[in-house]
Design a protein that fits this description.
This protein is about 50% helix and about 10% strand. It is built from 14 helices and five strands. It has a five-stranded mixed beta sheet with strand order 2-1-3-5-4, sandwiched between helices. Helix 1 packs across helix 6, helix 11 packs across helix 12 and helix 12 packs antiparallel against helix 13. The longest helix has 22 residues.
Length: about 300
């Protein structure tokens, strides 16, 4: 119920519910790129009827449905079926209450509609990896304190670097509560190649309008992106939104935008982040390398500016 209330604080006028419903039925990637064999699968998003969850009785009823679906998913993935059989049985069942379990956790601690930090990554999780790794599940009501969940290296290394100390659940929870974090991805479906480092820009472009609409609804003060794809995607959205900053234009056109960022990091002109305005809201943008990368230690300075932007 706390997770649902957290989403409700952001989408009080029904705009977030409408967007989630739209995303949950999106089939743009396979229809646009019919000849590709690595088509993504939309099994991620649950249409969240925030406008109907206006009282405790409605919340309780919806919570029962989520628990029932959660049990169904657990049993399905333990059944020994292959991926095609699992997909055939999934039907309308989704993998999280809202967009993804990371965001569900953020909503668990949200206390106001204000979002200080919005994080936009690359894609969610490749389906085959999700299916085969027994220690990397992502069911919505799994406790983040258990060993069998999705709180992996990206989440842990990001917050460890951001907070400047070894990862600690209590510290992260306090940060989520104070800063109203919203975390999503440039691509919301399962999919792409089975190679985790291989992504297709076309699929990200198919999803871009959804992410742009999300930024409009969330109205973050600071946006941080993960990886080259996240950086390129956010920069493209901000440019399409009317921003003329030369750095944003350069990042939106480059396939290796984080190399372009090296000179930006050194520039005192951007010590306060890359300033942008989107849908009448001023915000700051700061790209980061993918936190899960093993060479993370080479980019510790990425977080110095982010600390300043967040007032840490």
């Amino acid at each position: 119920m706390s997770i649902i209330k957290g989403y409700g604080l952001i989408g009080r006028h029904g705009d977030l519910s409408s967007l989630l419903k739209k995303i949950s039925s999106c089939g743009s990637c396979p229809s646009t790129y019919q000849q590709r064999t690595d088509k993504p699968i939309n099994c991620l998003v649950r249409p969240l009827p925030l406008f109907r969850l206006s009282n405790k009785a409605h919340l309780s009823k919806y919570s029962i449905r989520i628990k029932r679906d959660d049990t169904f998913l657990r049993n399905l993935f333990r059944s020994g079926l292959n991926i095609e059989q699992i997909l055939g049985k999934l039907g309308s069942a989704k993998f999280s209450i809202g967009l993804n379990p990371w965001l569900d956790r953020c909503m668990l601690f949200r206390k106001s509609k204000k979002t200080k930090l919005m994080i936009i990554g690359i894609d969610y999780k490749h389906f085959r990896v999700f299916h085969c790794q027994k220690r990397d599940q992502n069911f919505p009501l799994d406790s983040y304190k258990t060993q069998n969940n999705i709180w992996g290296p990206t989440w842990r290394r990001f917050f460890g670097n951001l907070l400047g100390k070894p990862y600690n659940d209590e510290s992260v929870n306090a940060f989520l509560r104070e800063y109203g974090v919203f975390i999503t991805n440039s691509m919301l479906c399962f999919g792409g190649s089975e190679n985790p480092s291989d992504h297709f820009y076309g699929y990200l472009q198919c999803c871009r309008n959804h992410i742009a609409e999300m930024i409009k609804i969330v109205k973050p003060e600071v946006i941080a992106s993960f990886g080259n794809y996240g950086c390129n995607n956010v920069a493209s959205i901000l440019v399409e939104g009317g921003n003329d900053d030369p750095v944003l234009h350069k990042l939106s056109k480059s396939r290796t935008p984080l190399k372009e960022m090296k000179s930006v990091v050194r520039s005192s002109k951007y010590a306060q982040g890359i300033k942008a305005r989107y849908e009448f809201k001023d915000m700051l943008f700061w790209p980061l390398y993918q936190p899960a990368r093993s060479h993370l230690y080479r980019y510790d300075s990425d977080y110095d500016n982010l600390h300043k932007l967040l007032g840490l």
